[in-house]
Amino acid sequence: MTVLSERLVSLREQKGWTKTRVANAIKIPVSTYANYEYGRREPDVETIKQLANLYHLSIDYLLGNNTQPADSRPYDLADDEPLTYHGVELPDDLRAYYKSMADAYIKQHRGDDRDA
């Protein structure tokens, strides 16, 4: 097994997710994802980015360049990045609602009027 495949298995199991759930979240066939975990195939760059986003980790951590998951990226989402909950992509109106709620929370806890 590769570092990537070991980390994919570990991360998925820590979340209590199935291979099907992960594959559906990143919109690939389950058999393709399973082969990533078994170390039989390597994902392309775009798929690695999707996996890093799904687990809120850096690509470097997934690939074995960092050893600490604490090096994870913030939970910021790009405007074109899908927002998922339990592997289901949420529609744009819910995405906008959750973003506005998060912005209001951040603004309130910063105690200032800067944009979040």
Radius of gyration: 16 Å
Largest sheet: number of strands, sense, barrel closure:
2 strands, antiparallel
DSSP helical segment count: 6
Question: What is the approximate shape?
Answer: globular
Tally of extended strands?
2
Strand content: under 5%
CATH homologous superfamily of the largest domain, by name?
Answer: lambda repressor-like DNA-binding domains
What is the typical, i.e. mean, pLDDT? 82
Helix content: 55-70%
Helix-strand topology string: HHHHHEEH
Q: Strand order of the main beta sheet, please? A: 1-2
By CATH, the topology of the largest domain is: 434 Repressor (Amino-terminal Domain)
What would you say the CATH architecture of the largest domain is? Orthogonal Bundle
Low-pLDDT residue spans: none
Number of domains: 2
What is the C-level CATH assignment of the largest domain?
Mainly Alpha
- Between the first and last Cα atoms, what is the distance in angstroms? 41 Å
SS content category: mainly alpha
Topology record:
Blueprint: H1 3-15, H2 19-25, H3 30-38, H4 45-55, H5 59-63, E1 84-85, E2 88-89, H6 92-110
Antiparallel strand pairs: 1-2
Helix pairs in contact: 2-3
What do you see in this structure?
The protein is mostly helical. It folds into 2 domains: 3-71, Orthogonal Bundle (434 Repressor (Amino-terminal Domain)), CATH 1.10.260; 76-116, no CATH class. Helix content is 55%, strand content 3%. The chain is built from 6 helices and 2 strands. It has a two-stranded antiparallel sheet. Helix 2 (19-25) crosses helix 3 (30-38). It is globular, with a radius of gyration of 16 Å. 10% of the residues are buried.
